[in-house]
Every structure is written in C-alpha cells, then in structure tokens.
Design goal:
This protein has one domain: UDP-N-acetylmuramoyl-L-alanine:D-glutamate ligase. With 345 residues, the protein is an alpha/beta fold. It catalyses: adenosine + ATP = AMP + ADP + H(+).
Length: 345
C-alpha cells in the first residue's frame, strides 16, 4: 500500500549518478581485460571497449547506481509512493543516459539530471562470476556537475520543496559549492541536512571542503573504518568508537538547537548512534553467511532505510531499525536491486 500522505519531493539527493551494467560473464572475459574476480577499479583506456562488448555478448541488467542514488532509490522503494524523492547529478547525452533515466524513473524517482555532450554517462560494469563481482567504473559525466544547474528554477524548486537533504561524501570531490548551497538552505529554513563519510580516503582528500560543510551537518553516516580514520586525521586520541561519535557530535554546529546525530555502522556488530551526548547501541540480527550474496552497497541501503522513516517523522529507533532491514535485504541480493515488494512493518 502506498504512503499517500507523504509530501511530493520531501527527500532530495545529489550525487554522482552511474549506470550499473550487470551480467554473469565467463572467466575468460575477465582475463581478456586483466580483471580480478573480487576487485573494483576505475576504467583505463584499455577498459573502455568493455562496456559495449559486455552488452553485445551477455544478457545485461541496467541499474541506476552511484552511492547517493542508491540511498535515494532505497528510500523510494520503502516509501512506495512515486516521486517522494528527487535526485540530481550529471550524465551524458548518449544511450547510457537513456537507460539510466529509464531505470531510475521506473523505480519512482524524479530525476533532474544535468546533461552534457562533453562527457559520457558514468557507467559501472558489474561482472559476475559465481558469487564474485569485478567492478569497472568509468565516472565520466558524473564528475562534472555544475552548481548553476542546481540554481535553475526548475531544479531549485525541488530543493525548496524538500524537507530532508542527503548527499554522500563522494560529491564533495565534484561540487562542494552545490553541497554547501543546499546545506545553508537547509539550515536557514529549519530543515535536515544529512551526509555520509563514504570512504576513508575522502577524509584527507577533501578535508578542507568537508570541514567547511561540517557545521551544517545534522546527520552523519559512516562505518567503523571511516570513523576511525576521521579520528586519527583530527587527532582525537582515541580509537573507542563511542568516544569518537561523541566528539564528532559535539563539533561546532551552526544550529545547536538540533543536536548532530552520528551513526556508525559496523557490519554485523551493533549500530552506534550518538546524539546530544547520549550513546545508543542497536544490535544487528545475525545473518547466515551462506545467505550473503553481495556486501556492496549495504551502507548506502542503510542510509536509505533510515531516511525513509525520518521523512515520516519516526523516532531514531525506528529509523535505525529500517536501516538495518534495508541493509539485510541488499546483502542477500546481487547488486543494489530490490524485490517487487517489501515486508517492512
């Protein structure tokens, strides 16, 4: 049943959109491109023919991908009501763009992509052999988003309509000014701005931009490794995740009336949530290792599950419970794909 009382466009995401092209392939196909069964790389010149050859040789699934888009897709799937989410990012003007638009809109997202003829649509080949995945990403247009697209009336109106904003840390490498503009709008209008550390290397690579936006962060997601690296980079002097969470939650914030929430996921270990000096732990129900098909994207799904309840005004306990549920669904599927219906209550 659809949640017809959820406002249109209540959740707004911005990030690096990719078209995941997924197919079971022969091991000889990996060998032809010197790829490993369990690895993820950025495409070099020698890998660019792979995408067309893969489509010609194998039956492929086309999935809307990229970290933020995966979280927004997860929230949209759980909310069941079309176009309660809006997503922006940069794509090309090519056949992959058409496939990406169709994949995202068929799942109920409103996509207001910036399109450029100067770069190809970002793609990620997902090469499946047995239970193994080899990922080859060509970021292309995804790395070329411009703030002027965000500020166009037909796009900014969805920023104004939204109540909650989400973007992964990867987008800080692409358009930090866009993230800052949305973060300031969120603060000025009493809304919620959430982001994700996303990867340990970003903590040093985009440190200055991350620190500029940090006072506007209302909710920060990340895993135990990312928070440990953050603590080392900022000389916290502790490896205790609860203490790290408390220190990050207490960092300067432009809106002290809304205490920052820090959410630390730890795979099968309890989720740690810190808010206003209080530390909570949420156990993760055990999952049989034989049932785990693919761990890629579980963190994105957790964030999407959390946000799906937040937009409905649910308490932290319910938001975390749904985040855990969504992550468990994704762990048991190949790629960031969803069953037609969910049984989350």
């Amino acid at each position: 049943m659809a949640n017809s009382d959820i406002p249109e466009g209540v959740l707004f995401g911005m990030g690096n959109p990719l078209l995941d092209i997924s197919a079971p392939v022969d091991k000889s196909f990996l060998q032809a491109y010197n790829l490993e069964a369990n690895n993820a790389i950025l495409a070099g010149e020698e890998h660019l023919p792979l995408f067309d050859q893969m489509m010609q040789k194998y039956q492929c699934d086309f999935i809307a991908g990229g970290a933020t888009q995966n979280s927004i897709r997860t929230a949209q799937w759980l909310l069941r009501q079309p176009q309660v989410t809006t997503y922006i990012g940069c794509i090309g003007k090519d056949k992959f763009a058409d496939l990406l638009i169709n994949a995202a809109t068929n799942e109920g997202l409103r996509v207001n992509y910036m399109q450029t003829s100067e770069q190809p649509t970002g793609t990620c080949a997902v090469l499946l052999t047995d239970k193994h995945r080899s990922l080859v990403a060509n970021l292309g247009a995804a790395e070329h988003y411009k703030e002027e697209h965000l500020l166009k009336e037909e796009n900014w109106r969805w920023v104004e309509k939204a109540k909650i904003y989400y973007s992964s840390g990867y987008f800080l490498k692409v358009s930090p000014s866009s993230m800052m503009t949305v973060a300031k709008h969120s603060h000025d209008n009493g809304k919620i701005f959430a982001t994700n550390i996303s990867a340990p290397y970003l903590i040093t690579l985009v440190k200055d931009d991350m620190m500029r936006i940090f006072p506007y962060i209302d909710i920060l997601f990340g895993n135990e490794t990312e928070f440990d690296v953050f603590a080392k980079e900022h000389s916290f002097g502790t490896s205790d995740l609860k203490e790290i969470g408390k220190k990050i939650a207490a960092m300067p914030k432009v809106n002290p009336k809304y205490p920052r929430i820090v959410i630390i996921t730890q795979s099968q270990d309890p989720v740690i949530v810190v808010r206003d000096g209080e530390c909570m732990e949420f156990p993760v129900p055990p999952l049989n290792q034989d049932d785990i098909v693919d761990s890629n994207g579980a963190g994105d799904a957790f964030a999407g599950g959390y946000l799906s309840q937040l937009v409905q005004g649910k308490p932290i306990t319910e938001c975390v419970r749904c985040g855990i549920y969504a992550a468990r669904v994704i762990l048991q599927r190949s790629g960031i794909t969803f069953p037609a219906e969910h049984d989350y209550q």
